[in-house]
């Protein structure tokens, strides 16, 4: 079956530090890949996506590249801010029939950014 | 932001009582999903719907049932709540287009005592 593995947290960084959150996946076929972000007390928000190999998704200074050869989709940001403190989820989308796609999530990585 | 609301947002109930959570969307999306979120488990799919009256089971469906009588509403019912069902429940919707991305509601925190 499909699975997503992301680095264990929590991760604590100082403001303006470089961020990397690792994500690898196992899937049959060619899934689409996503990063979602969850701020405290809220639902998940789509942060970025990539739909095929070598695609780079980017949003709000975050970016991730779909690497088929290493089955990875690592999240990066060059300079984090306190407002980036949240839980980040890597996910893949696979077709499940009846026109429906199902998401498989990693367990989440909590990021705390300190001033 | 996608128009998704969940009600109630918080609920405390006793073991053995029935509980129904509601998800309402204003996007006219065909697909709707219920997940639960627990520490150390990420999000796990409970049930999903691919149209009015069309539903199917997800990874952790035991103890849960769903109904969808209108496009905009997807109900999750715990027939007899247990303490193991204490969790945060999220509804999500998808148009089925694009890459299959889903958009999430704000969540319902359910505590079963």
Descriptive overview:
The complex is a heterodimer of chains A (115) and B (113). Chain A has 115 residues and is mainly β. In chain A, 0% of the residues lie in helices and 56% in strands. Chain A has no helices and 12 strands. In chain A, the strands form 3 sheets. In chain A, strands 2, 5, 6, 10, 11 and 12 form a 6-stranded mixed sheet that branches. Chain A has a 4-stranded antiparallel sheet with strand order 3-9-8-7, with no helix packed on it. Chain A has a two-stranded antiparallel sheet with strand order 1-4. The model of chain A has no long low-confidence stretch (mean pLDDT 94). Chain B is built from no helices and 11 strands. In chain B, strands 2, 4, 5, 6, 9, 10 and 11 form a 7-stranded mixed sheet that branches. In chain B, strands 1-3-8-7 form a 4-stranded antiparallel sheet, with no helix packed on it. Chain B is globular, with a radius of gyration of 13 Å. The chains are: A mainly beta (115), B mainly beta (113).
List keywords for this structure.
heterodimer, A: 115 residues, mainly beta, 6-stranded mixed β-sheet, 4-stranded antiparallel β-sheet, B: 113 residues, 7-stranded mixed β-sheet
Largest contact between protein chains? A-B, 24 and 26 residues
Gyration radius of chain A, rounded: 14 Å
Mean pLDDT of chain B: 94
Indicate the proportion of strand residues of chain A.
over 45%
Quaternary structure: heterodimer
Strands of chain B, total number:
11
Gyration radius of chain B, to the nearest Å? 13 Å
Number of helices of chain B: 0
How helical, in percent, are the residues of chain B? under 10%
Fraction of helical residues of chain A: under 10%
What is the overall number of helices of chain A?
A: 0
Characterize the overall form of chain A: globular
What ranges of chain A have pLDDT less than 50 throughout 5 or more consecutive residues? Answer: none
Strand content of chain B: over 45%
């Amino acid at each position: 079956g499909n699975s997503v593995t992301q680095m264990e947290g929590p991760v604590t960084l100082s403001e303006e530090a470089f961020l990397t959150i690792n994500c690898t996946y196992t899937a049959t076929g060619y899934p689409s890949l996503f990063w979602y972000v969850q701020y405290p007390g809220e639902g998940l928000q789509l942060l970025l996506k990539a739909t095929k190999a070598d695609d780079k998704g980017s949003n709000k200074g975050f970016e991730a590249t779909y690497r088929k050869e290493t089955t990875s989709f690592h999240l990066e940001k060059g300079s984090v801010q306190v407002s980036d403190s949240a839980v980040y989820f890597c996910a893949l989308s696979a077709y499940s029939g009846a026109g429906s796609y199902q998401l498989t999530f990693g367990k989440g990585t909590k990021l705390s950014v300190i001033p | 932001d996608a128009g998704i609301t969940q009600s109630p947002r918080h609920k405390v109930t006793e073991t053995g009582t029935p509980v129904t959570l509601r998800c309402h969307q204003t996007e006219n999306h065909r697909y709707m999903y219920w997940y639960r979120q627990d520490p150390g488990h990420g999000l796990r799919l409970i049930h999903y719907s691919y149209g009015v009256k069309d539903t199917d089971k997800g990874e952790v469906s035991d103890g849960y049932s769903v109904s969808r009588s209108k496009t905009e509403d997807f109900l999750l019912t715990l027939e007899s709540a247990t303490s193991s069902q204490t969790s945060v429940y999220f509804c999500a919707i998808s148009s089925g287009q694009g890459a299959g991305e889903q958009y999430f509601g704000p969540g319902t925190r359910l505590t079963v005592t």
